[in-house]
Fold each of these.
Amino acid sequence: MQIKKTLHKKSSRKLLYVTAIVVGIILLGYGIFAYATNSWPFNSIQKTIIQNKSQSDEAGDVKQTPDNSTGQPTGTDKSPTNKTPTQYDTPQGEKIQPNTLTGIINYKNISDGILTIRNTIDQKITDGNCKLVLTNKSTGKTITQTADILANPSSSTCKGFSVSTTKLSSGIWDITITITSGDQKGVLRSSVNI
């Protein structure tokens, strides 16, 4: 009987050791995977490092951010949170006046013989109008349309412009949209090839 008890103790210890080793290998494997993919718990460490770096940058330190592809510092900040979207950029030397409306022509498409033009106004305005002027670069011919302004939750838009391509000759047409609302005014420009 005593042999069976000793044998039973040895096998349960062996089972305990094997289980501990298997669990250890699984945890080690997950740790390597989590570190390589910035998964939990390493993602919170990365956020803390970025936040601490941002705080030191605000204190006047030199900004060195890692390049996403190599992990090496590049000396320039390419993060999307610090880059102003192009529609909000003000060209150097230009200052936006307080009564100036800004925006972008974000859609121009020809479908079924209709040129459709849509835009976004950066400011939320509830009244006013938009005047579209299409000018053919080679002939100087112009076509004009007007539309009311439609307010969105945080911006505005002209209600849209639709121009029959039968009125447009082939070539490059300059698009100018003049937005007027009270004493505020803005001009959006683009072009389209017909």
Amino acid sequence: MSPLFADRCSSLRPDARVAAAVTVGVFPDPRLPVAVMERAVAAWSVCSGPETEMPRLEIGRHGTRDLLVEFDPAAIGSDERCGSFQMRTITIFARTRTQHGNVVSCGSMIQNLTHELGHALGLADAPRSCSSFAMAKLGPNNGFHRRVRAAECQALSARWVQLPAPPPIWTGVEGDSRVAASSVYP
């Protein structure tokens, strides 16, 4: 399938559609260390600014879209998967099973969660040759040196559309110098 954003290391998931959102609420599993959640959410903050548009990720607050993050320290991922995103749930694993049946570490939980948040926002896996990108395909011991890159932010900007604020409603009588804009929306 052809990606919706043409960059070798950053592409939208083929099923991603343009969406409007202001905030995405992220609700962590109580077994997940708070610092992991905070740092993974903060990693995507590099994408905020006038040149990119994406929703704010907010921990523990409801948004226009909400995500649940699950973590079971005893669970082991399969097929060399260190996390998954399905519907509105992200699951993070500390360990995974290789194709040969060995159980190995998944590396940094922060980077694994950052990667899965990227999927939740609409990004596809980047090829392993783009190993420094947050969306580089995860594998055993492949999660220590990745970070969110500008190309990933640009791909997200193509995915998310911020809704403009509605125009103010004018109150009072035309010509009255005391007329002021109201913040009341129709």
